[in-house]
Design brief:
The chain is α/β, with parallel strands linked by helices. It has helices at about 15-30, 40-50, 55-65, 85-100, 120-135, 150-165, 180-190, 205-215, 230-235, 255-270, 325-335, 345-355, 360-385, 410-420, 455-465, and strands at about 70, 75-80, 110, 175, 195-200, 215-225, 225-230, 240-245, 275, 300-305, 320, 390, 400-405, 420-425, 425, 445. Strand 12 (about 390) and strand 13 (about 400-405) form a beta hairpin. This is HTH gntR-type domain-containing protein.
Length: about 475
């Protein structure tokens, strides 16, 4: 090879040898430099690039250490044979994933995870954050309690005690950045590898994914209107069950009292545990809030899981576990040395947000706003679709389930909607085993939390015109 056309930025803070190394490595991995191709000699490259020989030697040495090139005695440097197709496949997958997850192009995004950010008291949150930074500048930057800051745990304990009927102390609460992180902690704590985990069918796939990645076996249990199918659960051999009794995802049904009692009896008889996911239970639009399952627990079988993901902002990644007292000793023995995954600054800010009454006011305000949006999306569907659709009214949460009365395939409708600038989700994705799906007509999940009233009405109207 006569030369490599390398452009060096001599004003950059990146050393010249690193720039040379990066360029050659990129050319090799992208297939522009073929195996067994010779590289220019150090003397020739030094003259061409106007750099000293030590710079070139350092760059070539790094490439040799990584196995990208080799030095042949009295023969120079050559590109080694490597499987660059491996990197091309990874790049292709990453590009596909990026395309799949990019939602900014949708004019009407019925995203299940989006919330109303316009009504979040950002000025209050900013003021409290500044207060945290000014009052506790030094200690707030140090590593805190791996269980989570005590002040926030005390505020959470007060909240769940009065709002959800949860019986606990601050000592039982473990704070983490996300429900999936906390589920991994439960898997480690109880030792669920190779064990059977019962989940609702249909259900929350992100939770199921955590259990599968940990090495658990999944037992999908049919969800009935009043709760899980008790016979299927009894025959599952499960060591733990994941359920959301106050809002059974995705239809939003409530587990009735007898099913709750039966579930607790099952856990006691089988020395099993129940993970109660209480996600968005505070946003119930008719009747009173349903007390938690943990409120009925007398034998310490329920592990309570809560999060502020949907009730504050998704970017404020704060969730929490409430462990039964007898599991605390095992937590301190085996899990306590794990680092806390949530920013101490956000923990302290949320503590002040709750202690000063902002959290309670925000919850009640958002409940009214979401209740109006809930009514808007139902009215819009009924007005546009009439007898061509059925809405499953769960009366809780930030999404609805829509059944479309048509002979067209679900995937076709999904693609048509997205081409029209509308993002929504297929209900089929919530079934662990597709053979268990009893619905013939296409079914979709539409989140309304992040849309305005006008966007909901316009989005539903366009959706109808797109499909019919």
């Amino acid at each position: 090879m006569n030369e490599l056309l390398i452009t060096l930025d001599r004003d950059s803070s990146v050393p010249l040898y690193v720039q040379i190394y990066d360029f050659i490595k990129k050319e090799i991995l992208e297939g522009h430099l073929s195996p067994n191709t010779s590289l220019p000699s150090i003397r020739k490259m030094s003259e061409q690039l106007k750099v000293n020989k030590t710079t070139l030697e350092t760059a070539y040495d790094q490439l040799m250490m990584e196995g990208l090139i080799e030095s042949v005695p009295r023969g120079g440097y050559y590109i080694k044979e490597i499987d660059i197709g491996f990197f091309h496949k990874l790049d292709h997958k990453n590009k596909l994933n990026r395309v799949k997850k990019t939602e900014s192009s949708y004019q009407y995004n019925f995203n299940l995870d989006h919330v109303d950010v316009q009504h979040f008291p950002i000025s209050t949150w900013r003021r409290l954050t500044n207060e945290v930074l000014s009052d506790e500048t030094f200690k707030i930057f140090n590593t805190g309690d791996s269980q989570g800051d005590l002040g926030l745990r005390e505020q959470i304990a007060n909240y769940v005690r009065f709002a959800r009927g949860v019986k606990c102390t601050a000592d039982q609460i473990i704070i983490g950045s996300h429900s999936q992180i906390l589920l991994m902690l439960v898997c480690n704590l109880i030792g669920l590898r190779e064990k059977i985990v019962a989940v609702g069918e249909p259900g929350y796939s992100l939770a199921t994914n955590v259990f599968e990645k940990y090495g658990c076996h999944i037992a999908p249990i049919s969800l009935e209107r009043d709760g899980m199918n008790q016979i299927e659960l009894e025959n599952s051999g499960a060591s733990i069950v994941f359920t959301s009794p106050s809002f059974q995802f995705p239809f939003g049904n409530i587990m009735k009292i007898q099913k709750r009692i039966s579930l607790l009896k099952w856990a006691s008889a089988n020395n099993a545990y129940i993970i109660e996911d209480d996600y968005l239970s505070e946003f119930r639009y008719s009747g009173e809030l349903i007390p938690s399952l943990q409120n009925l627990d007398r034998e310490e079988r329920v592990i309570y899981l809560g999060t502020f993901h949907g009730s504050l902002l998704p970017a404020i990644n704060i969730g929490y576990l409430i462990l039964p007292p007898h599991l605390l000793s095992e937590y301190y023995r085996s899990q306590y040395e794990f680092q806390q995954t949530t920013s101490r600054i956000e923990q302290k800010t949320l503590e002040l947000f709750m202690r000063n009454g902002h959290w309670e006011r925000h919850r009640f305000r958002m409940k009214e706003i979401y209740k109006k949006k809930y009514g808007t999306i139902i009215n819009a569907i009924e007005a546009c679709f009439k007898d061509k659709a059925v809405v499953f009214k769960g009366q809780t949460g930030l999404h609805i389930v829509l059944e479309v009365i048509t002979s067209e395939k679900e995937e076709n409708l999904l693609q048509k909607a997205r081409k029209a600038g509308i993002n929504l989700y297929s209900l089929s994705d919530t079934w662990y085993r597709q053979a268990n799906n009893p619905f013939i007509n296409p079914m979709f999940l539409l989140g309304f939390g992040g849309l305005t009233i006008e966007e909901i009405e316009n989005g539903i109207a366009i959706l109808y015109r797109t499909w019919f």
